[in-house]
Structure formats: C-alpha cells, structure tokens
Amino acid sequence: MHATRTGEVMAAIRAKLTSRALVTGDRLPSIRRFAATMGVAPSTVVEAYDRLAGEGLIRSRRGSGFYVTGTGLPPMALAGAPSDRAVDPFWVSRQSLDADPATLKPGCGWLPADWMPHGALRRGFRALARAGDAILTDYGQTRGSLALRRLLAGRFAGEGLDVAPEQLLLVTSGTQAIDLICRFLLRAGDTVLVDDPCYFNFQALLRAHQARVVTVPYTQSGPDLDAFAAVLREERPRLYITNSALHNPTGATLAARTAHHLLTMAAAHDLTIVEDDIFADFEPEPSPRLAVLDGLHRVVRIGSFSKTLSASIRCGYIAARAEWVEGLVDLQIATGFGGPSPVAAEVIAGVLSGGSYRRHMDDLRQRLTRARRETARRLEPLGIRPWLMPRGGFYLWCQLPEGQDSATLARAAVTEGVVLAPGNVFSASGSASGFLRFNVAQAADPRIYKVLEGAMTTSQA
Amino acid sequence: MHATRTGEVMAAIRAKLTSRALVTGDRLPSIRRFAATMGVAPSTVVEAYDRLAGEGLIRSRRGSGFYVTGTGLPPMALAGAPSDRAVDPFWVSRQSLDADPATLKPGCGWLPADWMPHGALRRGFRALARAGDAILTDYGQTRGSLALRRLLAGRFAGEGLDVAPEQLLLVTSGTQAIDLICRFLLRAGDTVLVDDPCYFNFQALLRAHQARVVTVPYTQSGPDLDAFAAVLREERPRLYITNSALHNPTGATLAARTAHHLLTMAAAHDLTIVEDDIFADFEPEPSPRLAVLDGLHRVVRIGSFSKTLSASIRCGYIAARAEWVEGLVDLQIATGFGGPSPVAAEVIAGVLSGGSYRRHMDDLRQRLTRARRETARRLEPLGIRPWLMPRGGFYLWCQLPEGQDSATLARAAVTEGVVLAPGNVFSASGSASGFLRFNVAQAADPRIYKVLEGAMTTSQA
After folding, report:
1. Angle in degrees, CA B179, B185, B191, rounded to 5
2. Nearest residue of A to residue B74 by CA position?
3. Is residue B79 part of a domain?
4. How confident is the model at residue A81 (pLDDT cuts 50, 70, 90)?
5. Using a CB-CB distance cutoff of 8 angstroms, which residues of chain A are in contact with residue B183?
6. Do residues A327 and A377 share a domain?
7. Model confidence over A113-164: pLDDT tens digits?
8. What is the CATH number of the domain that holds A374?
9. Residue A303 sits at the chain B interface (C-beta within 8 Å)
C-alpha cells in the first residue's frame, strides 16, 4: 500500500467535498472507476475510502458503495469565474443569463424577446400606471392576487382539476415554487427521485437542499415503470419531481397508462409528486396530467408565466392540498416576506384574461412547429438526430454521432460565442454525454451550425 | 412517579415538536416552568425529558437545559387557520398582510399606501410601457440590473463604503437577501445571534433554517457589549443578524463606540454579521454602520425598497465580498432561477435617479416626526410610554402599564379589527410581553386608542 497514493485519493475526495462537487447523500465514485481515474490500484481507493469513513466524512452502505454524510462540510462552494467552471448544472444557466447580446444561445431555456407578447405587456404596464394606489405599493395578500388565482382556478377546472383559490399560492417563479415545496417536505439527506434526463436546475436545487438524488430513466412515454418500481422499493424517495407535458429536455409526453401506474405505485409508497407544468400551454392538445388524475392529493402542481409571457415579470404558482398551502404561506413569509409582487400578478392577470393570449399561444405553436422541423433539417447533415420529434414546445433532445462528447463541444462552442446545452448537465447519472438539447426558437442563425461543425471536426481530429 | 403524568408531559413536548412550536436547536421549557404549566411535580418533567432524550428527540447540555436535536421531526408545521394560531412570529405578518381594508394596522411594518410616491411610480410604469423588448420579457443578468447596482454603489460610496457593482446582487426582498445568506453560510443546528428584541421575522426565518437562536439584550446604543462578549465566548454563533440604523422594533441607534467594539469581538471569534439597512433612508442624518467600518470583510449589507418606495415592486439587494456573491448567485439560480425581476429594478432605478426621491424622503421624515409625537401623546393617557423616542423611522417601542400582557391585548384587539404587534413576537427570550410596537404612520385613527383602552380595562378586570 502506498501511503502517498492513499493520501492523494483522500485529497481528491476532500477537494470534491470542499467544492461541493459531492454533497450530503451523494454516492462516491465506484472504487473501480475512481481507481482508473486516479491511476492507482483499487485497494488504494478502498484504503482511502475506509480512512475517510473513519473520519466520518463518508459512510458505506451495504452493497451500494460509499456516500457523503454531511459531517464537517464547508459552506456552499465558492465558485470560480463562470468561464473556469466545470460543465455542471449551473453552467448552462450562468452562460445563458450573463451572455452578451451578440452571443447565440441555442442551449438556453427561453424564447427570444421578439417572440413574446410585447403589445399586451405594454398595455398591462400602461394600465398599471392608472391602477389604484394600494396595488402599486402594498405587499398584498399572503397567497397573492385573488384575481389571478381565480383565473388559474378557472383554467384548471377546464382540465377537470377542481382547485379552490385558497389552494393556490402565487410565488416569484416556477423554481421558487419547487424550492418552497422542498423546504416544506424535505430534510437534509432525504432522497428525491428525478427523471434521467431531467431539467438541470432540479439537480442544482436539490443540491442546495442537501437531498440525495436518485434517478429513473425517461422513455418516450414517461418514466420507465419497472425502474420506477425498483427505485421506490429500494431507495424510498420522499419526493418525485417531473415535467409531464413536454418533458424537459426530451419533449416526450406522459402516456395515460404510465400516469395511472405511476400514481398507483406512488400511493403504495407514500410518495409525493411535484408536477412542473411550465410548458403546458405549448401543447397542441392536452396530455394526461398526474395532478388531474390524482386531484392534488399527493401531487403538487407548479407552473409559471416565464416561458409564455415574460420572465422579467417574475410570477409562478403552486396548487396543492389546502393544509399544505397554509404551511407554504408561513414559509414564504419567513423566507421572502409577504406574497409575490402584486404588480406582477396584475400584469399577468390582465394579459391572461384578454383574448390576445390565446392568439399569442396559437402563433407561438405554429412558429415553433416550423422552427422544430427547420432545426432538425439543419442538424441532419452533421449527423445530429432528434431522439424524439416532440408534439410541441421549444426543445429538441438530440443524439450526437458516435464518439462525440457534448461537454467538449459546449466548451469549444462557448469560446466562439455559442452557448450549447450538453447532455450530462441534464443527467444525474452522467449517462447523456452523447446528447445536446436545442432550443429551436434560438437556433435560426447559421453560425450555430458552423461553430458546431467546427467543434465536432476538432474533437474528432 | 406517575407513569401517566410522565406520558402526558412527553405527549405535550411531542405535540410542540409536531407543530414546530419547538424546532431543532430550541431550548425546551425549563423543568420548573414546565412543571408549573403542566401542573405536575418537577421530578415528573425530569423523567419525561430523560425519556425523550433517550429517544434522541432532545438532548441535555450541561448547565443550560434540554435542546431539540432535530432527529425524527415531522415536516414543517401544518398551521391552522390564522385566527386560531398562537401569537408567534408569524402572527403579526399574517394578520397584517391578510387584513381586510377596514382593519386598522398599528402593528404592521409598512407605511400606508397614500404615504408612498405614487406619482413617481406611475411615471415609472409609463416609461416601462415604452421600454425595449428585452427588459419586458427576458430573465436579465444573474446579479440583476447593472443600472440599479451602479446607483446603489454610488450611494454607498457617498457613505464611505466602496463596493464594485459585481459585489452587489439584486434579490426580490430584504428577507430573501437574508435567506440566501443563511443558505450560503448556515447548516441545520448552527447557532445564530439576534438582538433581544429583534424584528420578529428574523426568528421565523431562522426556524426555517433549523438554526439555534441565541440573543443579546439591545440597549439604547446597540447590543449590550458585555452580554455580546459572553455569548460569543459561550455559544460560538456563526452569524449575527441586526439592524443598525433605526433598529426594529426599538428605533435605537448604534453608537460608534459600540460598533467598533462589536466588530473587534466579531473578528476575534470569526463571526459574520448581516446588517439589515432597510430603514437607512429614514434617518435624519447618517449613523455609524458596521458595513462602513468593516468594509464588507465580515459584514454583509442587505436592504430593500419596500419601506420607502413600494413593497409591491419586490426588489432588495445584498452587498458582500466578491467571492461570496459568486456563491450567492449560484444559490439564487438554484432556488429561484435567474436574477430578480428586471422590470422591478427598472422602475426602482428610475425613481431613485430622479430628484423626486429625495423630496419624497424629506416629506416622509417630517410627516413621521409629527406622527411619532402625536402617537406618543395619545398613548400617554393609557399609561403606555415609549422606551425611547427614536430619531426617525416609523416605529415606537412602548412599555405597557404594570400587569398588562401584550399578547392578551393583541388577541382582544384583533377581534375588534385592530392588529397590534405584541412584544414577545420580537423577543426570542420571551422577555418583552410588557411591550407593544406601534407604527406611527398607521396610528392616526382614534378607534385604535379606544380598542386598546377597552382591551386593557377588560384584562385588568
């Protein structure tokens, strides 16, 4: 046994803890894999892991490897400058949000500004300038605008989901909605189930909660049911977070049969489900929803208006069991004070109640259908193929040619002013390095395909 | 020993854990006090506490009683209807925010709508209706509007606090600012120091973080320095959260000498300080600031525009060490996605950069000075006296006549449509039951004094 090499392996794991590349509940790399990574014998890794376990930093779980305990970890990672960062779940967000205007962003998660309903929003702000004093300056009610909650309840009733306005809580974003629910339901170290692949920010959020993340493979009709059954049985997750309509990043649709089986299993294992409905209005026709089947018993519906109306006017919602909403209200007061912005809700309610919203969404859907076909057509000569042709929305989850690594391409492309969304940021199991997610509404510029081709050629050379 | 009585005491404590009346790090009621409350012998409480400790739910700490461990606690409290609730730190918030328009709110924490600068805000919304497309619909940069951050940096420079715009992070509220910092720096069970009394929502926030709260008595010139030294030595808090300018609820001002000594002790014990500067613009002239003395080394400055401009346009800020801001940006992405509302920042920046803001604040200060005197004058015949006549702001921390309990008065007054702010919601040590906090801007209606007089008479009867 080389004492120095053992020390090196221990230092490498400690560095992962310090940088929060590994957090409470995470599984350590397997002994075989980490031995290969470090160029040492497996017995050296065994020795290092045993010593770290002796220090209490990790612990072994029979038959399933070593896990981070959460003892003695430092505060949240102090990240370096964005461009130095690893291609992790924050990478796409930071590169996209802080991009200069000249940067092309086929990897980002929103529509271009000129696809959004500016006329209706401008009318909303003019109306606000004439609104009553209280709405312009007061905190508003703890659950947020009753007018907007009634509008939402009316829309949900049309789907067959009966929700009282008291069961709705307005928040500042879809992400904040999930964050509040996690705060309400989870404790550090709890196990949470997500799809593989899933929206990358679910992973970032769950890290902030020090949750242990487990995954289920996502198929073209929803989560793989056998794998779902196995993970419920073996991992006992407290929560499952998913998108049903137009799943991010795959664009897949949950099948009715899958939805029913999934809810039956959830009931048997007392699993709570957060159904993120943020892309619902992009569907050509409604697809099965867990919240509708379940009636908000163990499903929480969340959503926002960032993708359809405005991400600048921060407004989202939670629909949940009445007694849970009471607890969520307390949490929102404790952690943000008051409800969400009354002026934001006023503008959103104004746009939603007018006839222009339906026309806006009709236009968007048609425009996206064209853009989806066009993007697939332009990726074809590069050997990049959609895993699925989605029914709606703005994502295209694409498989790269054999041997290409999406993180390598993304790192190369960003130096040329193109932000891509590499597969592994969506995969908590690290199994999607051969995929890229394209936003078809942000993929019109020919330069994107030139940069992509150049990066693929270089990486193959 | 009566087994049944021991069981009753255990059940009573378990109920407090289930309802989160007690959370991780909280001290259990003293044996003597709880024996009196339950009408049992102290030895029965000793037996019950020992058994609960045996179950791991609580643990004893030598010489200082029993504490909640955080093992096996349920999810966040499922609260009952607001009116059934205990007079706890959420009580004033929920009663005030969800009050109907006819309710009088001398206990609330904001100015009446008609004291706010509606002209400037309406101009801001009209300008927004003519602004560029991107600001109306895009997420904006991760740190929020550069224009507003530059304005803030300019104002801070005028105080002698040099801050680069990169050291500023915009958020949706002052409370969210503190919440992000707590998420960044704290782990469940960490000890946090607050003033006694302090803003009640600090306690609610720290409960959500499962922090252990310790207190230092607040004097008319800041925290008591001897007590501060003792608590640093004995309790080793990780963080101290305070208001320096126009302390909430007392209206006291931090003295320069106190500020200097406090920072010296903080350095010796590696204590981080959050200085909540939300009332700064209400001061007649600037008072000493920890952030200015320290230069943002171990002090984090937070603030918002909810008290001076609008609570409906949710916008606050954090000024901190550059490397901390990087971590806070990640956390804000993970838990809320993107930065704070660009439209909110645009309106705030517009109002702050115009000349009208200074005039608005001049008017407010004069109006508040008159209201403060008038409120004190009207409380005098009831035997209710200010603990201190503050230099500015809208709070008056008042002592009740001997024998009056502010929670009893608050419960009686709310049934008559008057929301009061009883002392103990501000005191983590429960030592301020003889105080009420009045908002002098919300205290003009004579009915308030009638209801108060009636409640005091009834409670004495």
Report:
1. 90
2. A185
3. no
4. very low
5. 76, 208
6. no
7. 999 999 999 999 999 999 999 999 999 999 999 999 999 999 999 999 999 9
8. 3.90.1150.10
9. no
Terminal-to-terminal C-alpha distance of chain A: 39
Q: Is the per-residue pLDDT at A48 higher than 50?
A: yes
Contacts of B141 in chain A (CB under 8 A): 97-98
The complex's ipTM works out to 0.83
Sheet holding A385-386, edge to edge: A385-386, A395-399, A435-439, A421-422
Kindly report, residue by residue over B349-371, the tens digit of the pLDDT: 999 998 899 999 999 999 999 99
Q: Is B100 on the interface with A (CB under 8 A)?
A: no
Q: Which structural domain range is residue B383 located in?
A: 84-108+360-460
What's the confidence (pLDDT) of residue A73? 45
Spatial distance between the Cα atoms of B327 and B110, rounded to a whole number of angstroms? 31
Low-confidence ranges of chain B (pLDDT < 50): 1, 72-84
> Are B136 and A122 an interchain contact pair (Cβ–Cβ within 8 Å)?
yes
Which residue in chain A is spatially nearest to B140 when comparing CA positions? A97
Q: Is B74 within the bounds of a domain? A: no
Last residue of a domain, one of B353, B382, B398: B353
Say yes or no: B245 and B124 in one domain: yes
Chain B residues with CB under 8 Å of A337 CB are 93, 173-176, 201, 306
Q: Is the peptide bond before A197 cis (omega within 30 degrees of 0)?
A: yes
| Interchain CB contact of B375 with A (< 8 Å) | no
The answer to whether A76 contacts B176, with C-beta atoms less than 8 Å apart, is no
Task: Compute φ and ψ for A303, nearest 5 degrees.
Answer: -170, 180
3-class DSSP state for residue A240?
A: strand
pLDDT for res A230: 97
CA distance B124 to chain A (A): 8
pLDDT digits (tens, 9 = 90+) for A5-26: 888 888 788 767 765 567 667 7
Asked if A201 and A243 sit in the same domain, the reply is yes
Best residue in A91, A94, A97 for a mutation probing chain B (most B CBs within 10 Å): A97
Quick check: bond before B342 cis, omega within 30?
no
- Do residue B54 and residue B138 come from a single domain? no
Question: What pLDDT is recorded for position A173?
Answer: 95
CA atoms of A12 and A240, how far apart (whole Å): 32
CA distance B220 to B255: 9
Calculate the alpha carbon distances from A338 to A259, A443, B47 in Å: 35, 40, 42
Cis bond upstream, residue A112 (ω within 30): no
Cβ(B301)–Cβ(B275) below 8 Å: yes
Q: Classify strands A395-399 and A435-439 as parallel, antiparallel or unpaired.
A: antiparallel
The sheet carrying B212-219 orders its strands as B168-171, B316-319, B299-304, B272-276, B239-242, B191-196, B212-219, B222-223
Same-domain status, B149 and B238: yes
- Which residues contact residue B392 at a Cβ distance below 8 angstroms, ignoring those fewer than 6 apart? B246, B251, B279, B282, B283, B284, B365, B368, B369
Tell me: the pLDDT tens digits for A211-224? 999 999 999 999 99
Residue pLDDT, tens place only, B131-162 = 999 999 999 999 999 999 999 999 999 999 99
Supply A235's token pair.
Answer: 């991992």
Same domain? For B101 and B223 the reply is no
Query: What pLDDT digit, counting tens, does each position of A237-291 carry?
Result: 999 999 988 999 999 999 999 999 999 999 999 999 999 999 999 999 999 999 9
β-partners of residue B217 are B196
Question: Please, which residues 185-224 of chain A have a Cβ atom closer than 8 Å to chain B?
Answer: 185, 187-188, 201, 204-205, 207-208
Contact state of B118 with A136 under an 8 Å Cβ cutoff: yes
Residue A78 pLDDT > 50: no
Q: Measured between CB atoms, which of A80, A134, A311 is closest to B137?
A: A311
C-alpha to C-alpha distance for A284 and A365, rounded to whole angstroms: 7
